[in-house]
Amino acid sequence: MTTWPPLLVAVVVVPILGAVLTPVVGQWRARRAADWALGTMLLTSVVALLLVARVADGGPFSYVAGGWEVPYGIELRFDEFSAVTAIICLLGVLAIVFSRRYAEHALPEVRIPYYYALLLLNLAGMLGFSITGDLFNLFVFMEILSLSGYALVAVSGEKIAEMAAFKYLVMGAVSSIAVLFAIGMLYALTGSLNMADVASRLGGAPVAPVAVAFGMMALGFMVKAAIFPLHIWLPDAHAIAPSPVSAILSGLVVKVGIVGMLRLYQIAYTSRALDLEALNTVLMWLGALSIVMGAFFAVFQDDVKMMLAYSTISNIGYIVMGLGLASSAGVIGASVHVFNHAIIKATLFLGAGALIFRTGKRTLTDLAGVGHAMPWTVAAISVGAISIVGIPPTAGFLCKWYIALGAVEAGHPFFAFALVFGALFIFIYYIRMVNAFYFRPPRDPAILEVREAPASMLVPILVLATLCLVMGVLGRIPLSFIEPAVTRLLAPIGGG
Amino acid sequence: MTTDATGSILPLFAFLIPIVAAVCTVPLQRISARVRDYSLLACGAAVAVLAVWLAAGVAEGGVYETFILQLTPDIWMYLRVDAAGALFGATVAVLWVLALVYSWGYMAEGHRLGRYYSFFMLCLGWTMGVAYSGNLLTFLIFYELFSILTYPLVVHEQTPEAMAAGTKYIIYILIGGSLVLLAIVLTFFAAGQQTLTDGGILSAEIGHGRLFAIFWCFIAGLGVKAAIVPLHGWVPDAHPAAPAPFSAVLSGVMVAAGSFGIIRVVFQVFGVEILREMGVAVMVTWLAGITVLFAAVLAVNQDNLKRRLAYSTISQMAYVVLGVSLLGPEGTIGALVHITNHAFMKGALFLCAGLFIRRLGVHRVSQLDGAARRMPVTAAAFALAALGMIGTPPLSGFVSKWYLGLGMLETEHPLLLVVLLGGALMAAIYLLPIVYRMYFREPVLTSDDRITAEGREAPASMLVPLVVISVLTAALGLAASLHGMPVWLARIAVEGFFR
C-alpha cells in the first residue's frame, strides 16, 4: 500500500524532470536527446502500467501531496478513467521512437532537443491532467499541455506553422479562460477546489451560478475537444504539425477535453446540483453535427493529414454523443473510444508521416500508387482506415456498437441512425484514400521507386495497426475495465 | 444455447484455413507461381471437403457449434452449423474451389496476382463465416468485412470502368451494411445476445412499431446485397467489371449471402408466427415478384454478356426472397435449394462468359455467332446451364422452381405462378438466343484475325472446373431426391423453421 502513492507522483514528475533535462542532455548531440526522452517515457510507462494494474485490481485510490488532508492539500486520484495514462505513455513512447528519424529530417538540428523537451512536457501535462483530483491542478496541467502544444505545432518554424499555432493559441486561450472562470465560480460557491469535496458541497447551491459554471467549463472543454462548431483551430494545427506531434495532438490532446468532461460529469452527477438534461441534449446534437460536418469537410480534402484532422472531429463527435446520451452503453462506448481512437488515429498519422518522410508528398493525387512501393506502411494505414470507420471486429466497431446501443437504450434511436450513417460518410473518404494508394495509376512513376519506411518508423506503425485489431478482438478487456467507473458515474442519476 | 449441438472445432477451420492461405499467398508467390497455385488449391479443397463433410454430418441430424472468443462482456463470437448454414457453406466452398482453379488460366496474364489470390481466399473464409454464424453479431462481423474485402477484387482490373463500378458497389454495400448494423443494434436491445434459434428470438411484446423498424432495416440492408429492386444498382456494373472467376462467385454466392441473411432473419430472428401476425411478408412478396420480372425484362436488352447475366442474377435471386416471403414450408425448401442450384448454374454461365472473353476476345452477345464451332465444350456447358436456368427438367433449376411453385399453391397464392413462369419465360428469352447464335449462326469473320486463328477451345485448367460445374448442375437435378442432397438438407432446415 505504501509503495503506491509515490508512484502516483512519479508518473507526473518523471516526465517533467525528463523534459527539463532534455536540452542539457542533448546539448552536444541531438541523438542523445532522443535516447533520453525515450528512456524517460519508458520509465513513465512502467509506472503507469503499475498504476493501471492496481486500479484494475482494487479500484480507485488517491494520494494527498505533502500529507495535507483533503480538502486542503492537493489530491492525486487515480480511477478507471485515469487509465488513459497508459495510452498516453504508449503513444508517447511510439511517437518518440518515430521522431528519431523524422525530427532529423524535418527540424533544424539545434531545435531537436527542445522538440523532445516540449513533447515530454506535453505528455506530462496530459498525465497530470488525467490523475489530478484537484480543480486548480487540473487547470495548471491543462495549461502545461496547451502551451507545449502550441509550441509543438510551430516547431518546424515555417510561416504556415506559425499561423496555425497562433490560431490554436487564440482558441486555446479562450478555452483556458472559460475553464478558469468556471473553476473560480465553483470555488466561490463551495470554498473548495478538491473535486470530490466540491461535489459534496455543491448540493444546496443556487442553480443559476452552478449552471453558468458548468456551462463555461463545458464550453472550455468542448473547444479543447474541437467539437463542431468550435473546431476551427484543429485542422490546420493537426495537419501542419510534424506527424508524430499530429499523432499526439489528434490522438490524445483533444481527449483532454473529453477527460475534462468526464470529470465535470463526476462532479455534476454526484452533487445533483443541476439537472444536466439541457447540456446532454446539446452534446448529443453537437456530437451528431460533428460526425456529419467532420466527414463532410474531409471529403473535400486532398491533403492526407488534413483529411485525418477532419476525421478526428467526426470521432470526437462519436465520443461527445455517447457522453450526452448519458446511458450506460453510450458512456462506456464513449470512454472506450477515447482509448481506441487514440490508437487508430496515431496509426493513421504516423503512417501518413512515414509516407511524407519517404516521398515528400502529402496529397492524395501525388501519393497515388504509393501502396506498391511501401506495402507495410500502407497496409497499416488501411487497417487503421477500416478500424476508424468501425468495421467489425476492429477497435472502432466497439464504440460504434456501444454508442448506437446507448442511443437506443436512452430512447433516442435517431442518434443511432445519425451515428451509423455518419460513419458511412466517413468511409467514403477513406475509400478515396485507399483507392489512391492502391488502385489509381501513379501520377509520377518515381513514386514506385521509393523505399519502405525505416524500421524506427515502421515498427511503431505496425505495433499500432496490430493494436487496432487486438483492441477490437479483445474488446472485452477495456470494456469490462471501464464498466465499474461508468456505473459509478451514472449511479446518482439512476443510470448504469 | 440449444442442447442438441455438438461442440466441434471444425467450423473454425472453415475460415481459418483460407485466412492462413491468404496471408501466405505473397510469400508463396515469391517461391513460384506454381507453388502458390497448388498450395491455395490444397487449402481451398480442404475447406470444400470440410464443408461437405459438415453438410453430410448435418444431413444425419447433427448440429455443430464453436465458441470462438468473447468480443465484449456480452457478445460472443459463435459459429453454429445448422442445416441451412451447412448447405450454403458447402455451396460456397465448392463453387469457390472451382473458380480458384479456373483463375489459374483466366488470370494467367493478369497483374498483381498476389493481391488477387490473397483477397480471393480471404473472401472465401469470410463467406464461410457468414454461412456458419451462430448469432447476429457474428453474422455482422463476417458480413460487413467480407463486403469490404470484396472491393479489391471488384476493382482488380483498375480500369476507369472498374473503379467506377467499385465505387458504386462499395457505396451501395455500405449503406446496406449500415442498415443491417442498425437492425442488429435494435434487435440486440430488444432481445439481447441470443443464438439464432428456429422460431425466432424476438418476442411480439416489444411492440409493433419496433418490430416493423427492425424488419425493414433488415430487409433493406440485406436487400442491397440480395439485389432486390430498387436496391440492385451495383450488380449490373460490378459483374462486368470484375474478373470472370470472381464474377462467378460474386453472382453465385455473394448476392446469395444477402438472400441467405434474409432467410436467417425471417425464420431465426423473427419466426414465422410473428411475421404472419405482422403481415409484412406480403409486401416483400410483391417486391420480390416485381424484381423477378423487372430484372428479367432488363436482361433481354443487354448486349454485354456479363451484364445480361448480372440482370439474370437479380431476377433469379429474387425467387429466393419470394419463396421465403411466402412463409410456407415448400416455398422455403425451394428458396434454400435455389440458392445452391443457382450458384452452380450462374457460376457455369460466368465461367463460360470468361472463356469467351479470354479465348475469343468477345464481350458482347452479338459477337457470339458461331462460337460453338470454335469452342464446343464451352458452348455445350453454356447451353446446359442456360437450360437449367430456365427450369428445364430434369436439370437442377427445375427442382427449385418446382418447390417454389408448390409453395405458392400451398400458401394459396396461385397468381404468383404467373411470376414464376413469367420469370422462366423471360429467362428463355434472354438466354436461348445466345445458344441459338452460338450453334446456328455462321461466324462473322471480322478483320481481327486473332479470333479466327487462335479462337479455339480453352486449356484444360479452365475446362475442368467448367465441366465439373456442369455435371453438378445436372446431377443436382437428377439426384435431387437422394439422401444428403440439397433438398434433404433444406427439408431438415425447414422442419426446424416451421416446428
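Chain B touches chain A at residues 69-73, 77, 137, 140-141, 144-145, 148, 151-152, 155, 158, 163, 166-167, 170-171, 174-175, 178, 181-182, 185-186, 188-189, 213 (CB under 8 Å).
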